[in-house]
Write a structure and sequence with these properties.
With 59 residues, the protein is mostly helical. Helix content is 92%, strand content 0%. The chain has two helices and no strands. This is CsbD family protein.
Length: 59
């Protein structure tokens, strides 16, 4: 898969995590808030890896 696609997929996953977290806040559901935060952290890591791979291939 292309690196731009990987970056976009990670951003979409981070957005999904943000939505989960905000739903957890609205519903006062700690588990849902935690899931959203975890998903955001994982997506940030994936995005960083994709950006690093893209930078390495551009050299």
């Amino acid at each position: 898969m292309g690196k731009s696609t990987d970056i976009a997929r990670a951003k979409a996953r981070r957005l999904k995590g943000m939505i989960k977290e905000s739903d957890g806040i609205a519903l006062e559901n700690e588990r849902l808030k935690a899931e959203g935060r975890k998903e955001q952290a994982e997506a940030r890591r994936e995005e960083a890896l994709a950006r690093a791979a893209r930078a390495a291939s551009d050299r």
